[in-house]
Amino acid sequence: MLTLQGIPVNVQKPLLGKIDTSSVNKNERQSIIVNPKLSKRELKNYEAILFSSENIDKKIELLKIPTIYKIDGIHILDDADVVEILPDGRITVLYKKKSPHNIIFVTSKCNSNCIMCPQPINYAEGNLTDLNLKLISLIDKSTNELALTGGEPTIAGKDLLQLILACKNLLPDTSLLLLTNARKFGDFNYTHLLSSILHPNLTIGTALYGDNDRQHDGIVGAKGAFNETVMGILNLASFGNQIEIRTVIFRHTYKNLLHIAEFIYRNMTFVKHIAFMGLETIHQGKQNLDSLWVPPYEMISYLEEAIHYLTQRVMNTSIYNIPLCLLPESLWKFARQSISDWKRSFDAKCQFCSVRENCSGMFDSTIDLFRNYLKPI
Amino acid sequence: MISYDLSPNAEVFLRLKAKHFIAESLLEPAIELLSVKYRTKKAFLSEFTALHMFVVTLRCNHKCSYCHASSKDMGEKGYDMNINTAQKAVDICLKSPAKSIKIEFQGGEPLLNYQIVKYIIDYASKEALHREKNIQFVLCTNLTMITDEMLKYFGDNNVLISTSLDGPKHVHNFNRHYRGGNGSFDDVIESLDRARKYISPGRISALMTTTKYSLDYAQQIVDEYIKNGFSSIFVRSLNPFGYAFLKTQQIGYSASEFISFYKKILEYVIAKNLKGYFIEEAFTSILLTRILTPLSTGFVDLQFPAGNGISGVIYDYNGNVYPSDEARMLAQMGDNNFCLGNINSNTYEELFFCKTLKNIIENSYAEILPGCSDCAFQIYCGVDPIRNYLKYKDIIGNIPTSELCFIHKGMFRYLFEHILQNNRDTMDVFWSWLTGRNISEIRTMSKC
Questions:
Q1: Which one of A319, B36, B204, B278 is separated from A144 by 20 to 30 angstroms, measured CA to CA?
Q2: d(CA B18, CA B160)
Q3: What pLDDT is recorded for position A339?
Q4: Contact B294 A234 (CB under 8 A)
Q5: Which fold does the domain B48-253 belong to in CATH?
Q6: Is A223 touching B (CB cutoff 8 A)?
Q7: A311/B contact by beta carbon, under 8 A
Q8: Hey, are the CB atoms on A227 and B26 less than 8 Å from each other?
């Protein structure tokens, strides 16, 4: 997540608000004004004030409105973005109106322990539900898509259902993608509760790393996980939920991509989308890098096989997180610009590439690994 | 595995487990997945009777070499369905729990009783609307009597046309001719061209019935279909084989002769597809769907439990109800064993839950039938109790001597040879049929 830092004044507790750069939304609830050119009286309508300047007027300090100044990079904040302001002067961008990749971070806790997991678990983390409910109430109604992610969102139990219900009520035109290992949906009653919300545009994105429990459970570090996920997918499907299945391509899976594809087609023909994803090498992905990494040229033929199998059968298929120049041209049409804009990088070489516009780019974390293989087109 | 020599982490063990040939301690997920697959395969049963065939007349202007439907002369009286019977048949048909109903007009030549065809379409469409059912009409016609006015009406009502084209002129005319003896080829082609002005080409299909004479002309037959813009050919064998009647007509052949003909057709059709022309052999597509996909394909003539009554039913011109066309033929030959009743005197429940039908269905589960229960192709195949009865006077029949079984096994073996060879070209053609896409689309989608 994007974070800015400045010097806090009057910030007593964490505070959530919606950015206003043009002073036009002053009557809107919980607006945070950026570099205002307003009178003191007008400023009183605001929840907080942000400045890029080195210092601020004493009069403003006396207003007792939470203020942060000397913020570097304040220009990245746009109207309708939602930020959290912390007493230590940090500003975390929780929602970016311009980005197609906005998320609700439900929890960092997880019931699995995947060997390639890019997300650290924070065991001390408190309950984020109230914060997230507030966030949902501030998110712009024109948002196309939101992902609910973690950690494992279902760890939040009924709180997750509350978030989805809030999205249904407050963001009726926003489609939701719930990223989950789906183990909790092995519980029929929980699946029933989720389905009863009747969210009109909810997709459950889950993951399979093998076509059998031995391989999948080994990767996710939880015995019985494969069976729970499979039962979860069947339960979700029995209520007519839309399901997407993802898998990550790395040392443990790359030779099994076709097997995974076969398993999905034979048992879960109903899934609406299948995605093959390049590895993100931070956190566990970085620690275990030596045992996880497969050079692109080694795995491409397996990826081709799996994609061919699925497209022959008119299954909707995508490739995430692998730059175009590492894929044969026949696979380009499956490659998506999947990396969140704030995590996406290009190499200096990419500057002259003719297909850069359509390329996924690379994770900040993987760019060093890919660098030697890049060949601008 | 049995002697515990195979490691549970061995590649072969994992693949067998993934495909549910073996399971370890926890059985529930595997059983659940298998039951989903089984339910999916048998999904065609959930709708109950979807296909309703109406024999609106026995009269026909043709007298084809292979016709044993004992068609009547053009001028004969008393062989047309009347309005009262038609209405009652539609009422019964719409009582079926199926959400989507298909009404198929057969004969004789249905157009000889065009007024009733029209009546049924109008009445059934109106009634289907009240009952929130989807309804689709199929007209089985030799096309030779079709007028522009009729075509406009069928086009306006989204009626599908199923006609017969047996190949190039000399083949078609050998098989299919008017009562006066002249072949009907030229008239069929003329009507086809005209029909396409009113009805989109995709809604007009044709059946190809194979006689002994056809056997030498596999390629020419396919070429004729392509020439006439068809994207599908349905190759049928004669029914039944070795029938004395067919021998005297000198049109019969052995089951193995038919299989080699079928192979020739298929090779040629595949080659045509690889050259960019989309044409499928429709029966092969049905079999391949069963073999290569988890999806359900009911096909009343080849499924189990049998399609008789529970998937398809036929209403004769006089209101008699039969579980299949063969049952109707038997009745015409004097054997009324399989008549389910009459539209004018029986209720829906009496017709569809009668002992006759129960007995047929109960004896049509391939899993427990001698000759089928241990067959490798069983799950892709089907059972036709009434065709068994036609030959053996017994609905279970004697599978080892059944020509029908021989033919289906021949087709399965042939298709599995292709699947085993896994030739990229052939498999791309097969998948283009299963997904309704031209080969070029498959290639650009998946050229690797």
A1: A319
A2: 43
A3: 87
A4: no
A5: TIM Barrel (3.20.20)
A6: no
A7: yes
A8: yes
Q: What's the Cα-to-Cα distance from A182 to each of A188, A214, B353, rounded to whole Å?
A: 11, 18, 44
Same domain, A138 and A275: yes
Residues A153 and A185 grouped into a single domain: yes
Look at A234 and B32 and tell me if their CB atoms are within 8 Å: yes
From the list B14, B293, B445, which residue is nearest A215 (CB)? B14
The answer to whether residue A363 sits within a structural domain is: no
Question: Which pLDDT score is estimated for B446?
Answer: 47
Band (B150; pLDDT cuts 50, 70, 90): very high
Q: Are A118 and A110 in contact (CB under 8 A)?
A: no
Pairwise CB contact (< 8 Å): B17 & A307: no
> What CATH number did the domain enclosing A209 receive?
3.20.20.70
Q: Which of A320, A348, A371 is the last residue of a domain?
A: A320
Gap between the Cα atoms of B382 and B35, Å rounded: 20
Summarize pLDDT for A223-269 with one digit per residue, the tens: 999 999 999 999 999 999 999 999 999 999 999 999 999 999 999 99
Domain-embedded: residue A326 = no
Chain B residues with CB-CB distance to A211 below 8 A: 14-15, 18
Compute the Cα dihedral for B303, B57, B232, B172 and give only its sign.
positive
User: Which residues of chain B are within 8 Å of residue A330 when distances are taken between CB atoms?
Assistant: 446-448
Number of structural domains chain A divides into: 2
Where do you find CATH 3.20.20.70 in chain B?
48-253
Please indicate whether, in this complex, the C-beta atoms of B32 and A266 are within 8 angstroms of each other. no
pLDDT for res B196: 94
Tell whether A60 and A13 lie within a shared domain. Answer: yes
Q: What percent of chain A has pLDDT over 90?
A: 69
Residues A267, B36: C-beta atoms closer than 8 Å: yes
User: What global pTM score does this model have?
Assistant: 0.89
Q: What is the ipTM of this complex?
A: 0.86
Chain B CA closest to residue A317: B445
Distance CA B47, CA B96 (A): 8
Q: Tokens 């008789």 correspond to what residue?
A: B308
User: Does residue A122 belong to any structural domain of this protein?
Assistant: yes
Instruction: Give B296 or B340, the one with higher predicted confidence.
Output: B340
Domain of A46, in residue numbers: 2-92
Contact A231 B17 (CB under 8 A): no
